[in-house]
């Protein structure tokens, strides 16, 4: 059975004092998590060890890095390697976020290399895909997202692809206050699952968790997560507000 996941993406936000406060609050909150329902916190790199320590009391609260480099070590000043993450017990990494694609020119091929090295070190990629507004307005979002997935993931075996979590984020809904309707989210998630099914078969596709990201909030989480192919959310701004994200997790 595929897992339900509420993943927090703190992006480049928070001081050490603020991170301490947030992590303490989440560690002590009444969260409805279990073997099949996880909360994952993608925190800025300086706080990864802190987050591991603060959340260690609950195995269903996991920590993710926000990025890795495509090489395991070397002269790549400022980058973070999978060896580093593995050495501090980090089991998840966010890859392919639209901000990485747009601001840092990360290509589908480059992301394929990142996916490969993450899986080699048993770190689960939370792989982001999604279309900008002009693609949505042209009604070519399915082909756009299919290309992202095909070029970055379809070289993987059926066994390996089931270790990847997908996060569909319509770029036009990230941080804008706009949210895809629950019907739009379900339509795209169903399409993504069908795209995997065409390559790997329905059984494999049904084992892949697909999260929705894009202005997820407490007041829309229940409706979004009730859709049959929406397995949770990748949450930005709302994950920095304790009461808000607790409600999202429990949704």
Automatic annotation (TrEMBL):
Keyword Transit peptide listed: no
Class of enzymatic activity (EC top level): isomerase
Binding site for substrate: 9-11, 175, 215, 236-237
Annotated metabolic or biological route of this protein: Carbohydrate degradation; glycolysis; D-glyceraldehyde 3-phosphate from glycerone phosphate: step 1/1; Carbohydrate biosynthesis; gluconeogenesis
InterPro entries per the UniProt record, alphabetical: Aldolase_TIM (IPR013785), TIM_sf (IPR035990), TrioseP_Isoase_bac/euk (IPR022896), Triosephosphate_isomerase (IPR000652), Triosephosphate_isomerase_AS (IPR020861)
Protein location: Cytoplasm
MF terms (GO), sorted A to Z: triose-phosphate isomerase activity
Catalytic activities: D-glyceraldehyde 3-phosphate = dihydroxyacetone phosphate
SUPFAM superfamilies referenced in this protein's UniProt entry, alphabetically: Triosephosphate isomerase (TIM) (SSF51351)
Residue numbers annotated as active site: 97, 169
Keyword check for Cytoplasm: yes
Keywords recorded for this protein, A-Z: Cytoplasm, Gluconeogenesis, Glycolysis, Isomerase
Principal location: cytoplasm
Enzyme Commission identifier(s): 5.3.1.1
Protein purpose: Involved in the gluconeogenesis. Catalyzes stereospecifically the conversion of dihydroxyacetone phosphate (DHAP) to D-glyceraldehyde-3-phosphate (G3P).
HAMAP family in the record: TIM_B
Cross-referenced NCBIfam families: tim
Subunit description: Homodimer.
Family affiliation: Belongs to the triosephosphate isomerase family.
Protein name: Triosephosphate isomerase
Native organism: Parasediminibacterium paludis
């Amino acid at each position: 059975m595929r897992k339900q996941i509420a993943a927090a993406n703190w992006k480049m936000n928070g001081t050490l004092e603020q991170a301490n406060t947030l992590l303490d609050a989440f560690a002590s909150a009444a969260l409805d998590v279990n073997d099949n329902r996880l909360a994952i916190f993608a925190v800025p790199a300086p706080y990864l060890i802190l987050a591991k320590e603060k959340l260690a009391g609950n195995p269903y609260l996991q920590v993710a890095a926000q990025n890795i480099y495509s090489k395991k070590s070397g002269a790549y000043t400022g980058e973070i390697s999978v060896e580093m993450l593995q050495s501090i017990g980090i089991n998840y990494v966010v890859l392919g976020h639209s901000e990485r694609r747009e601001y840092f020119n990360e290509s589908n091929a480059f992301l394929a290399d990142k996916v490969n090295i993450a899986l080699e070190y048993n770190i689960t990629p939370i792989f982001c895909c999604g279309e900008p507004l002009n693609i949505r307005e042209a009604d070519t979002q399915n082909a756009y997202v299919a290309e992202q997935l095909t070029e970055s993931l379809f070289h993987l075996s059926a066994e390996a692809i089931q270790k990847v979590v997908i996060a569909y984020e319509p770029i036009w809904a990230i941080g804008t206050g706009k949210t895809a309707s629950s019907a739009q989210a379900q339509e795209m998630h169903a399409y993504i699952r069908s795209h995997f099914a065409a390559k790997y078969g329905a059984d494999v596709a049904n084992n892949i968790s697909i999260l929705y990201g894009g202005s997820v909030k407490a007041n829309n989480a229940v409706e979004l997560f009730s859709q049959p192919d929406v397995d949770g959310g990748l949450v930005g701004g709302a994950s920095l507000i304790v009461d808000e994200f607790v409600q999202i997790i429990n949704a």
